[in-house]
Design a protein that fits this description.
Helices cover 26% and strands 31% of the residues. The chain is an alpha+beta fold and 84 residues long.
Amino acid sequence: MMLNVLYFASLRETFGIASEHIALPAPATVAALIVVLRARGDSWFDALGPDKRWRVAVNEEMAVMDTVLQVGDAVAIFPPVTGG
C-alpha cells in the first residue's frame, strides 16, 4: 500500500525532505512505518529513535504506534510542539 509521509520542523531539516511516498505491505501500522524509516540508518535512526520525542498524525488525527494505516493515508511525523 502507498502512503504519503510528511516531515515537519527539525525532522524535515534533518532528513532533507518535506514529504515522500512510501510503499508498505498491508496491513501496516505506524510502528511498521517507523521500523522502515529507522532502517535507513544514521540520521533516520537517530532522529526517530526510541529515546527521542516525536509525534505522529494520520490524516490530521493524532496517532499511536498501533494505529492501522490504510492505502493513501497521509502520515505526518513531527517533533512535539513547544511554546513560550
